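Table S2 (text version). Query chain:
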Amino acid sequence: MQGRRSAIAEILRHYKPRTLGGRIFVIMMLGGVIIAGISTMASQYIIDRSERISRAYTLGFTIRELILIAENPELRSSAADLGARDGLLVTLMAADEPGTSLLFSRPAQHIALPVRLSETGWPTSVKVYFRRGRLSSEQRSSIEKSESPGLFFAGLSREIARLGLEGRLEVTMPSGNRLLVAHPVLWADHASPSVVFIMFLVGVVAVLAVFAALADLLAGPFKSLTHAILRNGDEVEGPPVEERGPTEARSMAAAYNGLRLRIARMLDDRTRMLAAISHDLRTPSTRLRLRAEFIDNDELRETVLRDLDEMDDLLSDAMDFLGDWIHKEEERTVDFISVLEAICDDYADLGRPVVFEGPKPLKFSSVHTVFGGGDEAHSFGDKRSIRLTCRAGTLKRAFTNLIENALKYGHRAYVSLDATADRVMVTVCDEGPGIPEEEQEKVFLPFYRVEGSRARSTGGSGLGLSIVKTVIDAHEGDISLRNLPRRGLQVTITLPRRVA
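Corresponding structure-token output:
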């Protein structure tokens, strides 16, 4: 049995369309065929019901003839044959014959006879028996307005068929004899239109739900590819994306894997080239330092050594920005307060005006209960511990760059830290002139400087904030700038609070 299922699955897999358009076409065709089949079944029910009601209407005239025959002793024996031609089951009973076994247990529903009809042989009583349900007052009113006995029984037969319930008719004639009439097809239990309509809606909704699930399954490879791209982000290393699904999804996954491979090779080539350039430049830089020591002019010697230091710093910043050093550091869980506090303490030890303000203690208010309590505030302690899973080394570099910028352009740096259940907020403020709002987005670009100059005398290399932005983006954080009301710039960094 298992082998047979595997063979069937292999056949279906072989003939399954390989393109997205082909699979969508197959799903649309299957959905259209199934919905068309359900609609055909509903239409067939409506047609059958209409034909059943029409046939039931003609039975009324046959019943009228049966009543006339039943009153004639000579023709009474042919009543069953006359009814059988139209599918009627006819039973003649004498006035004193009980015959309760032929009737339903539910009480009979009497149909009022029109007073204006006074034809010979007109019944004295007409009763309808149902296992369940009844004729409505509107149906009875329509029947009782009939102009002739034939129309009376035709209308009665039609309404019994319209109900779709199993029923029987008992007619009591002037002689006292009774005529029991039933029809196993027209007066039988059938599904009501409301039930069929509900079943049709349920069927259509079920089909749509199934094909919505199939459509979602069809989009699965594209969703997986999207999640993989979002998960990888800027990283080009790691396992390739699985190539599965329709041809278009496989092609997209293959193109993405190829693109990542080409970018990885390009980054490796760039890193190797930068390392070679750095090595080749640092060698003559070292020789120049040695030769500068022999310069007798102290001012000239200090100028040359300062220029060499700036060149080395520029090379280091360029290597840091263009290299993949951020993603190479592994994430670990650290006490984030201690990380920031250590950076600020190092500057304070060197006499630099850097102030650190840690997060405020957590406070809560007690609530009133039946056992007492009040609204007084309580605190968990004076010092909080904020655990954060991050690349601590790269974050240290980012916050060091921010503090250096604050000291360089704003003379003082104020660092504050706060945290909520899902994020960590760090602000770095200074007392400088700030940055014009139209320039605030551009300062994160490599080598971009607000004063329009790359001269070292007016600032850094233009890579400090670019490195900060790269580090924060790698941590899925956000960085924003805001000029303070009086003077100074506020840099706000928000990091997601993740603890592995």
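Notes on Table S2: The longest strand covers residues 489-496. The mean pLDDT is 78.
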